[in-house]
Design goal:
heterodimer; A: 345 residues; alpha+beta; eight-stranded mixed beta sheet; four-stranded antiparallel beta sheet; 20% strand; B: 316 residues; alpha/beta; six-stranded mixed beta sheet; three-stranded antiparallel beta sheet; 9 strands; globular
Amino acid sequence: MVTKIFTKGEWVSALKGARGDYRIFIPVKHKDFHAFELLSDETQPDFEYQNTRLSPKSLIYPQSERMFEYSLDEKDEEAHILKETPKDYTPQAVVGIRPCDAHALQLVNVNFDNPQYRDPLWVKRLESTTLIGLGCNEPCSTCFCTSVGGGPFSEKGLDVLLHDLEDVFLAKPITQKGEAFLEQLGQGKGADDTLLEKAETMARSSLERFTSTVDTGKLKDKEVTELFEAPFWEEVAFACINCGTCTYLCPTCWCFDIQDEVLGKEGDRIRNWDACMFPLFTLHGSGHNPRDEKVQRVRQRFMHKLKYYVDRYNNGVACVGCGRCVQFCPVNIDIRHVCELMNAF
Amino acid sequence: MPEYATKIREIAKRVLEDGKVDVVIGYKKGSIPMVNEPVLIRDPNKVENLIWDSHCALNLCNYLTGRKDRIGIIANGCNSRNIVTHIVENQIKREQLYIIGVPCTGMIDHRAVTRAVNDREILTVEESEDRFTVKGKDFEETFEKKDFLQTNCAVCLHPNPVVYDEMVGEKVEVPEGVSPFKDVEEIEKMDVQERWSFFAELVSPCIRCYACRNACPLCYCPTCFVDESDPQWVGKSIDPTDTMTFHFLRAYHCAGRCTDCGACERACPVGIPVRHFTKKLNKDALELFSWEAGLSLDQRPPLDVYRVDDYNDFVE
């Protein structure tokens, strides 16, 4: 597979040229933060960004997605029959996704695509997606991907990895899908050794600039019931206001709720993100709620990411160290601290 | 301000040791710059964790709801007004509280600071008197605090605690000539269509995380209307109608009760200025009932009083 070099102008014009073959999503700045948006003549990609405020998981797994439609009109021959809502599975490319967020999709994939369950919406959309990662030259102080199985230039989950070499992008295909994407772009030229070396040097230098690390090594051997009963949960949970910021910004949170919405005689079955922080998440039909208390919900979030997932999938922790929850938790509950508490318990 | 922290620790230690309170609720320094963590202290030897600076923006009154023990709590102007509201609304008893009053000079809008350094990552912040210095990997800048106050703090008329058992310092001067409702007046000038579009645009980034609701000390309903499931009142998707419904109803639940503490805006992960809604209702409460929430323990809020001599006809 051929590693290619694009000048930055060439890269954007090549992306624009590929819009006939792919729906291309790029980071765009709006007011105070970045979000992935469809590349159009009006949108201006900003590849100098740190990361998007919300993780790009919504491009594979939307916050709200209409799954089925049905009619409640008794005169309709097909009344009460669920029909799958037509969906767009034409090829899409997420260009500039950070390696942590691509790694996250891989972690989530074991939940949605495994021998026991295969979630068709997730599987089809992930299959139709090409992930063009952008390596991180400048890690944030809250980034800890290197502690949780990733890295600023990790290739996990990616189809192409871009290195920003100041004047040019070096695009390294990782999968066949990625190679096909680069071929489709057309432009660009082969990378010479000097640039390949520069890419390596910059990647090494980025690694050296990580200031945040977390120990996760002992989590697997902990007794789950002991961690569950650990005395530190009350203290960890005290400040929590039980909002959904951490879960909704998180690239690895996958929980959802399915709801029917009816207007007149037309109905929709919709899948919405849900969050273990909300009391309603576990409210039973009987009125009983097994996680009625805040401390139970806070514990669930951390136990799921740092213990249950570890035990169930043997795939590391369900956290990629993107630092979003650390940065945006309104009350500064820091997963790095909680992880240390659990690991050291 | 470091002297406030020293005084807070001293008082907290004393009231814990004397058995006057079982716990003290305050702030501890956060793990990242410009965000502090609310903390509960039981052990008099741990009062060193308590701090006070311009980043103590989340309203501590949130943590009082339903407590049965005796609590020492740090309170500046708006926190104290919410404590009053909590007492008036029977959510906590005055006798349970030892209020450590802090005269407040306002909280720093961390988002505005980040904008001012062109989104570069801030690694440390240091305050001295009226200024603060932020440092990052390759920059250092000093700003005047008054230019970076949270928008609610910039128009605050009640910086001093309205109830307290002990103050940590001299009361600060109440600013004069502040007109708190300028932004509301701008919105009032819009015609209906324009205003609707303005609100639709305002809430469009909402992800329904409910951080605004949960950061608000007024939102203590055992089950919020958006969490009702039998029957369900509001849709769970990010359909704009449901999102608008949530924001409007939340605001109306705060009518005549909101102290404009700004916790809702501070907590919003996508930066929606949700105070636009509550401020309009604060303005109405002031104009219709000469009422500002949380100033008196002896007066009922306007929306829960019935008076035979009410000047409105609909009472008859």
